Amino acid sequence: MEPRFDLFSNEIGAKIAKRFAATSTVLGQSGLPHSVQELVSLRASQINGCGWCIDYHVKEATAAGETALRLHLVAAWRESTVFTEAEQAALALAEEGTRLADAHQGVSDETWAQVRKHFDDDQVAALVSLVALINAANRLAVIVHQKGGSYETGAFAAATQ
Predict the structure, then answer these.
(1) CB of 69 within 8 A of CB of 119?
(2) Where does the record place the Carboxymuconolactone decarboxylase-like domain (predicted)?
(3) Is the pLDDT score of 37 beyond 90?
(4) E strands, the chain, where?
(5) Which among 118, 130, 147, 157 is most buried, taking Cβ atoms within 10 Å?
(6) Rounded distance, CA 58 to CA 30, Å?
(7) CB atoms < 10 A from the CB of 111, how many?
């Protein structure tokens, strides 16, 4: 499968990428831990099969100090001992928020209660927005067959300045 379209080299696509980057900046200022943001983004990207986003988030998380063990275990976080209760709540929200069509209720009350237990209002706003944003990014990249494997750490931030 070859890439269908280069969103970053298109004027409209580049403008949209800058808006994504601006939203990411707001998320970074939200108080939601960067590690949680990367884990959530990675998990949603795994579910959606977005190779470019998986590549991006693994490399950015690694550069920020995340361990290889935790990154390898994100796909099996329920069967792992390396994530905090807060991280587990965020990962559950990422999964349920990504798989909306798989459950008649969307995000369960149990997951929502765990999120509220561990995150303040600003962090909840950021977390919910992050789940929506990463799902949108996944869809953009998957639709145009954007491949993973060649991302260089920091390249997205540099390209969207």
Answers:
(1) no
(2) 17-96
(3) yes
(4) none
(5) 130
(6) 21
(7) 21
